[in-house]
Write a structure and sequence with these properties.
By secondary structure, the chain is mainly β. It is 3% helix and 42% strand. It has 1 helix and 10 strands; from the N terminus they run E-E-E-H-E-E-E-E-E-E-E.
């Protein structure tokens, strides 16, 4: 079964930065917009950023101006640069195909195990 492989999470102080990476199966990456999602304890999974094959991006209001999504089509990899991190950004971060509208429903398949981001002093 194909799935995503996320990396780059860790513990960071408020105001700090992290860069997440996600390698996707080529058959999925090459034909879809890709998104970064996050799920905090006790909360629903939410889509925070999406990028189309052509590079159009969209962001949730909660991360706009602080997070930047990008993709390397030659490496089947999508990135999330996170700056000015806040404790409220603490969550497990996942990548997957992403609706450009940012609206549910989200994908049912291809989920990886995610990467944990903890923002704390």
């Amino acid at each position: 079964q194909v799935h995503m492989v996320e990396s780059g999470g860790g513990l960071v102080q408020p105001g700090g930065s992290l860069r997440l990476s996600c390698v996707a199966p080529g058959s999925i990456f090459s034909t879809n917009a890709m998104g970064w999602y996050r799920q905090a304890p006790g909360k629903q999974r939410e889509l925070v950023a999406v990028i189309t094959r052509g590079g159009f991006t969209n962001y949730a209001d909660s991360v706009k101006g602080r997070f930047t999504i990008s993709r390397d089509n030659a490496k089947n990899t999508v990135y999330l640069q996170m700056n000015s991190l806040k404790p409220g950004d603490t969550a497990v971060y996942y990548c997957n195909v992403g609706p450009v509208t940012m609206r549910r429903p989200y994908p049912m398949d291809y989920w990886g195990v995610g990467t944990l981001v903890t923002v704390s002093s």
